[in-house]
Write a structure and sequence with these properties.
The protein is an alpha/beta fold. It has two domains: 160 residues, 3-Layer(aba) Sandwich (Rossmann fold); 95 residues, ProC C-terminal domain-like (ProC C-terminal domain-like fold). It is 53% helix and 13% strand. The protein is built from twelve helices and eight strands. Strand 1, helix 1 and strand 2 form a beta-alpha-beta unit. The longest helix has 22 residues.
């Protein structure tokens, strides 16, 4: 007998129908959350209508109407307008409602302060692969969130990928590693394609080779659970082509570049969290 989902029967509201908001809605519907239990609002009516046509969820006419009678409210809006949205919905929120925020760089304490009353808040840092239901999210609990709320958040986040609970002080580092991380892999893919093209390969062939290699390599890492160092040794035969390439990376400081890049992203994420 299939185990009952912790989300069964709960009313879920999503404010914001941008790329991430849409990804969350699609994932929840695919995970068998009844579409009529999901209500969405966005100022862009065109986005809302397209999402409704695709997923059959309910639409609201305002932020307040969206959160009315909801058990879970997902704030999928830009951090610049988060305060404005919260102040608009605060009086319409059920006291037992769980608020999940994916606003980048917005600390839980500040979100709780915006509500001006005790609210159960969970802050999430998702990443772009959530758009294809293969995301990696990290989340942290606010001071009023309990273990039931944690289980609800895990169920929501598992609808579009994997998740990990971390202390909030780690979320800026999460942002630098997995939040920005997809762009690092895309950059490597771009340079591999450029190198193949400049050496005489057609672009479409190079793309297929690189994209499938990236997909397969990720699958190997996930399924083997072995350290990258071990996997590198399996590919790099002594005196072979891979070893020759790796020596160039080492000589030109590839590892240091990666470390410096993550540190720069980490520093900027902390600055954003501090309102700079």
């Amino acid at each position: 007998m299939k185990e009952k989902s912790v989300l069964s029967g709960l009313k879920i509201s999503v404010i914001g129908a941008g790329h991430m908001g849409q990804a969350m809605v699609r994932g929840l519907v695919i995970k068998s959350v009844y579409p009529q239990n999901i209500t969405v609002f966005d100022v862009d009516a065109k986005k809302l209508n397209a999402l409704k046509k695709e997923t059959h969820i309910r639409l609201a006419k305002s932020n307040r109407q969206c959160v009315s009678l909801s058990d879970i409210v997902i704030l999928a809006v830009k951090p610049q307008i988060l305060r404005e949205v919260i102040e608009e919905i605060a009086s319409s929120l059920d006291p037992n409602c769980l608020v999940i925020s994916i606003a980048a760089g917005m600390p839980i304490a500040r979100i709780e302060q915006f509500f001006k009353k005790p609210v159960s808040v969970i802050r999430v840092m998702p990443n772009m692969p959530a758009l294809v239901l293969a995301g990696m999210s990290a989340f942290s609990l606010g001071k009023h969130a309990n273990q039931r709320h944690r289980k609800i958040a895990e169920a929501v986040l598992s609808a579009f990928g994997e998740m990990e609970q971390v202390p909030e002080k780690m979320l800026d580092l999460v942002t630098a590693v997995s939040g920005s991380g997809p762009a690092y892999f895309f950059l490597l893919a771009e340079k591999l394609i450029e190198a193949a093209y400049e050496s005489g390969m057609k672009v479409d062939v190079a793309k297929r080779l690189v994209y499938q290699t990236a997909f397969g390599s990720g699958k190997v890492m996930l399924e083997s659970r072995e350290d990258p160092e071990v996997l590198i040794e399996r590919v790099a035969s002594k005196g072979g082509t891979t070893e020759a390439a790796l020596k160039v990376y080492q000589k030109q400081g590839f590892g240091k570049s990666v470390h410096d890049a993550v540190k720069a992203a980490f520093k900027r994420s902390r600055e954003i969290s501090q309102g700079k």
